[in-house]
Amino acid sequence: MYDLFELDNAVAEDGLQLLYVTSFRYEKRWIGTRHAHSFLEIFFCVSGDCEFFVRDSNFTLHPYEFVLINPDTEHVERAIPESPVEWVVLGIKGGHSNLPTDSNGYYHGSFASDSKNMVQLLTLLISELQNKNEQYSGAALRIAQLIMIHLSRITGRAIEPEVSSDNRMQSSIAWVKQYIDDNYTSPLSLEMLSDKVGLNRYGLIREFKKRYAVSPIEYMLSCRFRDAKFLLETTDRSIVSISGNLGFNSGNYFSQSFQKRFGMSPSAYRAKHSTT
Q: pTM score, two decimals?
C-alpha cells in the first residue's frame, strides 16, 4: 500500500511548507535508490521495521521511532519482509533540524513516550488528506504543525526555519573533508563523494577548492602521501606494502606518483630521511 498526498499551498506563517505526506506499508523485500532532497523529510514508523542507509551510516527503524533527514542528505530505505513496515512520511520545505545529529545529517529518535498522541495525529492527518473536505490543506498543515510540536517536546529541540544555502553548502563540504579524513586509504571517487552530499562532481570540486584550495581527490592523495612519507621515514616496510595499505592500485603507480610529487623515488626518500 502506497499513498502519496501532495499539497500546493500548505504554507505556515514562519515559512515552513508541507509539501507532501506519504502513507506506506510494504510486506515484500524492497530497497529504494540512493537519493537526496532539497527539503526536510521525517519518517514515522508505526509498525514493523525498516533499514535506513544515510550517507555512510546505517541503522534499523523500529516501531514508534522516527528519523529526520536534513536537506541535501543522501539516504535510502530498505524494507524487511519478516517485519512488514508501516510508516508515514512528511516532506517539509523551509525547515532544518537543529537536533543533535552526527556528521551524516540525520536524527534517529523515539516517540514511544508519546505514541498514543502521535499515532492519533498521524492517523488524523492521513484521514484529512484522503477525505479532502473543505480547507483540508490548511487542516493538514495545522496537524503537521502539532506533530512537530510533539516532536519538539520529546526531543527538547524544534524544527527551525531553514538555514541559508551557503551554510548548508559549507556543512556539506566540511562533511566531505571529514569523510576523506576517515577513509582516505579506501577507494574513493568524485562520483561517490558527490552523491553523498547531493552535488554534481563539478560543483563539489568548485566548492571544495573554494574552501580548502585543492580538489577532493588531491586532498585525499595528500593524506596518503603524508602517511607514506612517515612510513618511509620510520619503518622498514616494503614499498609495495606501504602503497597497498594506503590505497594505491600498485607499487609502480605509487612510485611514479611519489617521484612526480617529490622529485625523488620512495627508495631515495627513505635513504635520505630514514630514522630507523
A: 0.64
